[in-house]
Every structure is written in structure tokens, then in C-alpha cells.
Design goal:
two-stranded antiparallel ribbon, 10 helices, elongated, single chain
Length: 278
């Protein structure tokens, strides 16, 4: 057990234990989602769905945990049965109601959907996934083939390109990327019997070594920038729940969600969440 992993104590009440268990579950969902979105690439599209499930469920449960614990801190009572369930999977409504809690507790709304277009887009995307797109593949079987690629993975890539500005690649990385593409081009010209048939995250055919190499380089950028984009609403939620630390015997939520409260300049180097998890 590491210091960054809060644990249950024998003297905890059933309610305290339930809250801590829910925080652990939420942390695990967000960790799996953030890590998977970071490592997304065309060779493992299943990882993208793992990311969308983890992020959507994690944001849903973190928002509900905030609303439940905020009411308890203010009134000494938890919401009546059914009140939280009435939100269902509506992430947009949940995060909007959390913003009221954040404002009341003096949390900066810089990463909140109401103030950040990228954060709003992420919540909207995950809201659609939670309510509908998680069944996309099975529903597609009954719809048949179509000219338009409208799957969640393709739309996620488009979302990242829309809300993340192009970053300048340093000269050393540019040279290395060019060298890799040159070698791939050599393979295309000298290994004619190789059969290559892959599909990019956007749904485009990849039929050469050079196309695959170029796509891998692009996927690396989409993975990092997509991770940072996805973290925006999570950072806002994490800062909000941290204001409830110690309230009426509540746990120190900061210990659970501090991984998502760091600035992008630090998180850009991260490859897994939470940091201590193998």
C-alpha cells in the first residue's frame, strides 16, 4: 500500500466506507479511461472504447459523488433514494449542476464546460456515448454499410483536431519522423509481396508501410492531445470535490483525484493514471 492509495479503516462507519469505496471505483474508471485515451492508435481500436467507457462512467460517478457529498456537508443528510438515479447517464446535466457547487465553493471555472469550449465538447461527446453510442457497433449491424463513417472513434479524432491547436514539432523529432517515413517508403518499394490492410482511427484505409508510419506518428499526437483535452472537465470536477475534504467526516478526496489536478505542462509527460498504478 502506497501513501497515494487511501484505504478503509476498521473504525469507519458503513457510510464512510461506502463513500471511500465509491471514490476508489471512480478513480479506477477515470484512470483506465485516461490511460487508454493516451495510448490510442489504429492497431488497437478496442482501447478507444475502453477509454470512452471509463471516461463517461468516471465523470458520471464523480459528478454524482460531488452532488451527494455536497448535500451531506451542507445539511447533514444524503439525498433520498432515487434522486441521484434520476440523472441516469445525463453527463451534461450532472456537470452543469456540479458547476453550481463549484461556484458556491469558490472553484475556478476555467476548465468547466460553461467556460471552456473544449471541456464542453468532451462532456457532450461522452454524454452521447453514455446514452447512445456505446451500442454503436451492434446497432450498425442492423443498419448495414453506409458511405458516412459516423462511429465514435472517428468523431473523437475530429473533436481533438478541432479543439487542440497544432503544436510545433522540434527539429530533432521532425528529422526522426522523416527518417522513419523514408525507411517505410523503402519497404514499400522493395517488399512488394507484403500485404497491408489496416484502417486508421478515422476510418481511412492504410495500404502501405509509409501510410502506417505516418498514421502512427499522427496517432501519437492525437493520443497525447486527446488525453489533455479529456482531462479538462475531470480537472474541474477534481478541484470541486477537493473542496469537500474533511466535511462532516468525509474523506480527503484530494488524495483520490490529485492526478487530474495537475497542469497540462506536467500531465503531457504522463503515460498512465493514477501515477502509482502498474
Amino acid at each position: 500500500m502506497t501513501p497515494s492509495t487511501p484505504s478503509a479503516r476498521p473504525d469507519q462507519t458503513a457510510i464512510q466506507r461506502a463513500i471511500i469505496q465509491e471514490a476508489h471505483l471512480t478513480r479506477a474508471l477515470l484512470g483506465a479511461g485516461t490511460t487508454s485515451i493516451r495510448h490510442s492508435f489504429f492497431g488497437d481500436p478496442g482501447r478507444m472504447y475502453e477509454a470512452f467507457f471509463g471516461l463517461s462512467q468516471g465523470i458520471e460517478r464523480l459528478s454524482k459523488l460531488i452532488l451527494v457529498c455536497d448535500q451531506y456537508q451542507r445539511t447533514g443528510r444524503f439525498p433520498p433514494p432515487g434522486e441521484v438515479e434520476n440523472y441516469r447517464h445525463n453527463l451534461t446535466r450532472l456537470v452543469r449542476d456540479v458547476e453550481a457547487v463549484a461556484s458556491a465553493n469558490g472553484v475556478d471555472l476555467v476548465d468547466a464546460p460553461s467556460a471552456n469550449a473544449g471541456s464542453k465538447a468532451v462532456v457532450g461527446f461522452l454524454n452521447k456515448f453514455a446514452e447512445k453510442d456505446r451500442y454503436y457497433n451492434l446497432n450498425r449491424l442492423t443498419q448495414g454499410d453506409g458511405a458516412t463513417i459516423d462511429d465514435p472513434i472517428s468523431r473523437w479524432v475530429t473533436l481533438v483536431r478541432t479543439y487542440v491547436p497544432e503544436r510545433r514539432v522540434n527539429p530533432g523529432q521532425q528529422r526522426q519522423d522523416a527518417m522513419h517515413r523514408g525507411f517505410a517508403r523503402y519497404m514499400d518499394e522493395n517488399v512488394p509481396l507484403a500485404i497491408i490492410d489496416h484502417v486508421s482511427l478515422s476510418g481511412d484505409r492504410l495500404s502501405s508501410f509509409e501510410a502506417m508510419t505516418t498514421q502512427l506518428q499522427d496517432d501519437k499526437r492525437i493520443g497525447v492531445e486527446g488525453m489533455l483535452l479529456a482531462i479538462r472537465p475531470i480537472r474541474f470536477l477534481s478541484h470541486t470535490i477537493s473542496t469537500l475534504d474533511y466535511g462532516r467526516g468525509l474523506p480527503v478526496f484530494t488524495e483520490f483525484f490529485d492526478d487530474w489536478m495537475m497542469p497540462d505542462s506536467y500531465l503531457r509527460r504522463r503515460r498512465r493514471f493514477p501515477l502509482h498504478r502498474s
